[in-house]
Write a structure and sequence with these properties.
two-stranded antiparallel ribbon; 333 residues; Farnesyl Diphosphate Synthase; 2 strands; globular; mainly alpha
């Protein structure tokens, strides 16, 4: 990708716009992930926090507050809070999924162990609540604590649904709303709340985050079957190999005949996978138009994200957020 193309990406433009604030967020994160008595905590946390993530979720908080004219420093605290919650869930996810790679690097549970990942994740959750309280806003605490509970609920639901081929699109959406969209929508909503924005504006920001998070996750599900591993940091087909029942698979299974259904039972429910199974799975996705239908769903959620913001006053950040809703889909279009 050329420098011009990179500069055109909306999350890069947001990062440039909020460069000073993001530096403050990163400084706060490093300060709060320190531990006087347990040096493994900053070791494990730094491995993930410093791994080159886009800081998309904290940028959403900064963006929402900026759009609403916020002048204080609680946006810095809340952006760090959101990143701590996100990092904690990644540490726990990698243990649950038995993952070996995250953002193109070995996972913390692989470099250290599962116990360290779980306990450091717990520590970061605790740190996030300390930061929330410092804003002095009960509503902010309510929004982010509810999001944390919803994320955990979504992960537990995924445990029971991800390898059950009778899982419906409605259940999938419930999982995605929990594990991904809940933090997106909380990140944008609290930016409006600390700014004292009108309720309609705060609701629009929340709805934008919800739709963007769903579009983002659906696009990620598509990238697992047609993405570039050098870009995504994942191998193509990882979700299939890990027996995760994502939206493309749900759509293909819905139209499966008896022979195809037996294939999905063997590979997803029973985990009896052979070398050629990924290629056959991808062929079935194409046979049933599952990838195209999944892309259409992602585009619809991206359009809902745009619709949530278009009624708000014009602002450079609003325009970048509108572009972001298009970009998360353009990755797979």
């Amino acid at each position: 990708m050329s420098l011009d193309e990179a500069a055109a990406r909306p999350h890069d433009r947001l990062a440039a716009y909020f460069a000073e604030k993001l530096d403050a967020v990163n400084t706060l994160i490093r300060a709060r992930m320190a531990s006087e008595h347990a040096p493994r905590i900053p070791e494990v946390t730094a491995h993930l926090v410093e791994a080159g993530g886009k800081r998309l979720r904290p940028m959403l908080t900064l963006a929402a507050a900026d759009m609403c004219g916020y002048q204080g420093d609680h946006d810095i605290r809340l952006a760090a809070t959101v990143e701590f919650i996100h990092t904690a869930t990644l540490l726990h996810d990698d243990v649950v999924d038995e993952s070996g790679q995250r953002r193109g690097r070995p996972t913390a549970n692989l470099l250290w162990d599962n116990k360290s990942s779980v306990l450091v994740g717990d520590y970061l959750f605790s740190r996030s609540f300390q930061l929330m309280v410092e804003t002095g806003s009960l509503r902010v605490l309510d929004i982010l604590s509810n999001a944390s509970a919803t994320i955990a609920e979504g992960e537990v639901l995924q445990l029971t649904a991800s390898r059950d081929i009778s899982t419906t699109e409605a259940v999938y959406l419930q999982v995605v709303r929990g594990k991904t969209a809940a933090l997106f929508s909380a990140a944008t909503e609290v930016g409006g709340v600390i700014s004292g924005a009108d309720e309609a504006v705060t609701r629009a920001l929340r709805d934008y985050g919800d739709a963007l998070g769903i579009a983002f996750q659906i696009a990620d599900d598509l990238l697992d079957f047609q993405g570039d591993s050098a870009v995504t940091g994942k191998n193509v087909g990882d979700d299939f190999r890990e027996r995760k029942l994502t939206l493309p698979l749900i759509k293909a299974i819905a139209g499966a005949d008896d022979e195809e259904r037996a294939f999905w039972v063997r590979t997803i429910e029973k985990g009896q996978q052979e070398a050629a199974d990924l290629d056959h799975a991808v062929a079935l996705l194409h046979r049933h138009g599952a990838l195209e239908a999944t892309l259409a769903d992602a585009q619809a959620w991206g359009a809902r994200a745009r619709a949530a913001l278009v009624g708000l006053p014009r602002h450079p950040v609003r325009d970048m957020l509108l572009d972001l809703s298009d970009y998360v889909i353009a990755r797979v279009s």
